[in-house]
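FIELD: query
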Amino acid sequence: MIALLTGKLAYKAPDFIILDVNGVGYRVQIPFSTYYALPAEGAAVSLQIHTAVKEDAINLYGFRTQQEKELFQLLIGVSGVGPKLANGILSNSEPSELAESLLAGNIARLSAIPGIGKKTAERLVLELKEKVKKLGMAQPEPATAPVVAKHEIRDDVISALVNLGYKESVVNKALGEIKITEDATVESILKQALKILMK
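FIELD: result
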């Protein structure tokens, strides 16, 4: 089972990357929290990996920190939460925010995440509150990113949020409330869009 990959970042998108490890390209699904911290394409990167094996596929999920990976593994340990949903949960909430929501029993915040209803949110709080306490989550470090054209940013954000389970019309409405400036990045617009969508 793959637990760690170190290589060259051959390609990156908000929901997955391709990591070139000695000439072999691994497709690794990532949450936005990891995407925000990635360097530019071509740079060396090391990710903690969770290998999800199904009958018809082997999927790799990558995380910038061991703590983030542990949080993901706690999430998939909850009945009804698979790797895809756990990845979506981490994309909708920074690990530290998610930990705070679980510790505070913030059902409204958790059930605003696509794919999570009130019952699942309650189950997450019930099963993970004590386990999350042991992780001692820290505030994430801000990440810098290269400048990208406005239309490319918009397209990337729409694609990432639709893949997360938001309807395209809802995403477009949220983006209509955001002014995409010259120095905007995919990361900054994603964060703003998620704040609007999670209201």
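FIELD: remark
Residues 118-133 form the longest helix (16 residues).
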